[in-house]
Amino acid sequence: MSDPNDLAAFLAQAWQHLSRGVADRRAPARYPTFATVGPDGTPQSRTVALRGASPSAGTLEVHTDIVTDKVTALRHTPVAALHVWIPRSDLQIRVTAQVEILTGDAVQSQWNQIPAGSRVSYGTLPDPGTPIDHVYAFEKPAERSRFAVLACTVTALDLVHLGEQHRRAGYSRADGFAGRWLAP
Ligand SMILES: Cc1cc2nc3c(=O)[nH]c(=O)nc-3n(C[C@H](O)[C@H](O)[C@H](O)COP(=O)(O)O)c2cc1C
Predict the structure, then answer these.
(1) Does the N-terminal or the C-terminal CB of the chain have fewer CB atoms within 10 Å?
(2) Which DSSP state fits 54?
């Protein structure tokens, strides 16, 4: 086993899981909980699919529909918390990120890569969250103009590993993610 006292290795392990989530739909990090702060200060959380992860840049990517509540929340408070629990590794990953909402020409390349069957996730009528008269009283046209990329610049990570002795570490962009051990 690798040195348990190695902060960089602990961080690398977390990024490995995040990257695997992008590549493998069965990996636990595929579907993080994505939390935002609503305009009235209420916390909101929902499942999303992780679409991009760059350990070197410290960025993550999520795709969404521009009219969803999470986008409204991010326009007020452009900060998100992402949470993943990796059961087999007994690892909790918590991420705080600054979020930029990208649309239009800036997201053309991502849109091009989305299969036709998945594009219907962007454009639901009426808008997601609208009350409807019947359980299936909605349509799902693929609407390019509703597609948004949430470009997440990671500002901090908090990792907890449950072992014989628990390990917890915090990392911040402010010091280049050098990290420090925290009491678990
Ligand atoms: C497994 C799973 C994956 C999901 N992936 C996404 C996603 O990648 N992007 C997204 O906007 N919503 C995704 N959703 C739907 C959200 O959880 C949520 O219901 C929807 O985005 C509306 O959220 P909001 O009103 O809080 O913005 C997913 C739901 C599930 C159950």
Answers:
(1) N
(2) E
Q: Is 4 helix (H, G, I), strand (E, B) or coil?
A: coil
**Could you report the per-residue pLDDT of 95-141, keeping only the tens digit for each?**
999 999 999 999 999 999 999 999 999 999 999 999 999 999 999 99
pLDDT beyond 70 at 1: no
38 lines ligand 1 (CB under 6 A): no
Sign of CA dihedral 83, 86, 92, 94: negative
Among 22, 46, 51, 84, say which to mutate for ligand 1: greatest number of ligand atoms within 8 Å of CB: 46
Q: Whose CA is nearest to atom 22 of ligand 1?
A: 68
2 lines ligand 1 (CB under 6 A): no
**For residue 60, which phi and psi values (nearest 5 degrees)?**
-130, 160
